[in-house]
Backbone:
């Protein structure tokens, strides 16, 4: 099998979702080692050495982000971003469902490295059972002395608060997350100042993704140099890829970065379903640009995928077979952004509205060629002109699909119905 | 004073838990919605009182998030994902089936008050088990019309609703 299990290696061990089960596979040893072998600064250095980049989508080097915290300014906060809502993405849920203590341990190691005494896990409201799981395991960890005062006799204190959201994709944007956590409408803040300088309650704050933090126990135990030996030079380690769409085995697969996308599709996902051909795929979640069958030999590597005009983003892969209508697919994504636009800035609020209006008319076969031509215009007034990346990314997929499948888009104009989608194509085979 | 003592205690506890009391707004609204099934102006004014905020500040928060509601819902909540991964695997058929079975449109409540259902473009994070929905916040995946029937029948017969969020 092509999977390379680092983060997911223990999944399947008995009672892993309990403290006792997690400890049986070596759980919380990394936290002990962190206290014993590292000063906080050394731990930050170790994470820098590992080269690990954030797993939330933007791919910023975690150690570098950590080192932006101003020295001697306290209190500082850590927020774990578990507001996973990117279309196609379900890896954070997978990690929380299957190995929740691993995340708690990662949060505690990061908190020690950053000298944070109150850490938060902001989890989306829809992940109701997952929130209850985190509350349960945090309580278990508290009773065992991993959370609280003078953890394991180290003199280090840390509380972990599980904070449930209430339905808002934008809260995955780190500054909107902070506003939401402060009890406000979750709208993004102007940057700079960046959260590292002025974040939660105006204090230095680090926001890290679930999967990023889950890597910390292994980096602590086995070292940054070891981690760096996995993956490619600039995309180190493994990543979880959430695979969905027209494939035989949808699911979450952990892959060494640098592995060809084809291996993920053919060996792990069992190839395309019903013997159909691949028409297109979206490699990084709903925000990222379309890729074509000719891109299957690209490695799972951030630079290489970026060179092909897309991004590995949040690690979601949606595969489409040859019955898929790219206009219908684009329309659903545009609808999503229109619904989730927070309304703070005009280009996003108005742009997504007009995008959605156009895409609905196009999919119904009612738009004219002249109307379709306005798509580029609408999008160019959004991309790079919005307050936060939501409005920018609301244009990326649809524009890339319009470029790659121009004939298909144009065939919709005045057709009176969708010329691609047949009713049966939408049914479960 | 209209909120139950238990709810007030939960809100006060949240207020003490956070470095700043205002952070307790979201947990407080969850607690209110769990108790009375929706967010009323009176209840939100009471939350504002406990957290030392203006009622408008609490109301502004309540209207921003899609999981809070200001109108009564049915005893059970059904949310069906229609974003891309679910759409590719038949979400549309599931949506049509539910509308037919429950006899009302997305966003509406059945006449017997059992179900409020809606389709949502907000990806639920169940793409690996598409098509998917949530019933009373619990994931139900790999849906077929027959499985939907089974789940709805079981839910309808359930003694009580799953709490619509807590703390």
Residues:
């Amino acid at each position: 099998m092509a999977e390379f299990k680092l983060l997911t290696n223990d999944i399947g061990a008995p009672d892993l979702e309990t403290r006792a089960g997690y400890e049986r596979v070596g759980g919380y040893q990394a936290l002990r080692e962190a206290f014993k072998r590292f000063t906080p600064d050394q731990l930050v250095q170790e994470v820098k050495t590992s080269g690990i980049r954030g797993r939330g989508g933007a791919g910023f080097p975690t150690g570098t982000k950590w080192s932006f915290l101003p020295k001697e300014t306290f209190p500082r906060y850590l927020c774990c971003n578990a507001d996973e809502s990117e279309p196609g993405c379900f890896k954070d849920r997978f990690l929380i469902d299957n190995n929740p203590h691993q995340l708690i341990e990662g949060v505690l190691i990061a908190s020690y490295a950053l000298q944070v005494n109150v850490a938060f896990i902001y989890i989306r409201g829809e992940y109701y059972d997952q929130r209850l799981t985190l509350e349960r395991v945090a309580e278990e960890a508290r009773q065992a002395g991993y959370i609280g005062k003078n953890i394991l006799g180290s003199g280090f204190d840390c509380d972990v608060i599980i904070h449930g959201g209430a339905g808002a994709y934008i809260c995955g944007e780190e500054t909107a997350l902070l506003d939401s956590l402060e009890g406000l409408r979750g709208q993004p803040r102007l940057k700079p100042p960046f959260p590292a300088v002025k974040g939660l309650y105006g204090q230095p704050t680090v926001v890290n993704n679930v999967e990023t933090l889950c890597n910390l126990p292994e980096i602590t135990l086995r070292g940054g140099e070891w981690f760096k030996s996995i993956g490619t030079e600039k995309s180190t380690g493994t990543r979880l890829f959430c695979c969905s769409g027209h494939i035989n085995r949808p699911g979450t697969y952990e892959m060494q970065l640098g592995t060809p996308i084809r291996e993920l599709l053919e060996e792990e996902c069992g190839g395309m379903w019903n013997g159909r051909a691949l028409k297109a795929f979206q490699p990084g979640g709903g925000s990222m640009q379309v890729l074509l069958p000719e891109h299957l030999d690209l490695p799972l590597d951030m630079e290489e995928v970026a060179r092909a005009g897309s991004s590995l983003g949040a690690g979601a892969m949606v595969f489409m077979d040859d019955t898929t209508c790219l206009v219908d697919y684009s329309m659903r994504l545009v609808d999503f952004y229109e619904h989730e636009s927070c309304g703070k800035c005009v280009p996003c609020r108005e742009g997504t509205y007009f995008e959605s209006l156009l895409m609905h008319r196009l999919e119904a076969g009612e738009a004219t060629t002249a109307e379709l031509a306005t798509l580029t215009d609408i999008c160019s007034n959004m991309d790079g002109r919005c307050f936060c990346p939501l409005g920018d990314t609301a244009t990326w997929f649809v524009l890339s699909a319009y470029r790659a499948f121009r004939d298909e888009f144009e065939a919709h104009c005045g057709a009176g119905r969708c010329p691609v989608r047949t009713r049966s194509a939408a049914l479960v085979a | 004073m209209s909120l139950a003592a238990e709810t007030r205690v939960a809100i006060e506890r949240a207020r003490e838990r956070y470095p700043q009391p205002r952070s307790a707004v979201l947990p407080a609204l969850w607690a209110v919605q769990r108790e009375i099934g929706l967010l009323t102006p009176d209840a939100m004014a009471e939350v504002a009182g406990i957290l030392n905020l203006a009622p408008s500040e609490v109301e502004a928060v309540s209207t921003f998030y899609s999981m809070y509601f200001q109108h009564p819902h049915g005893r059970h909540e059904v949310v069906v994902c229609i974003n891309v991964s679910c759409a590719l695997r038949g979400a549309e058929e599931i949506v049509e089936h539910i509308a037919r079975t429950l006899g009302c449109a997305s966003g509406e409540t059945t006449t017997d008050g059992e179900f409020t259902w809606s389709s949502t473009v907000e990806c639920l994070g169940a793409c690996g088990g598409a098509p998917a929905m949530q019933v009373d916040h619990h994931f139900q995946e790999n849906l077929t019309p027959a499985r939907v029937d089974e789940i709805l029948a079981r839910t309808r017969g359930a003694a009580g609703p799953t709490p619509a969020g807590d703390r």
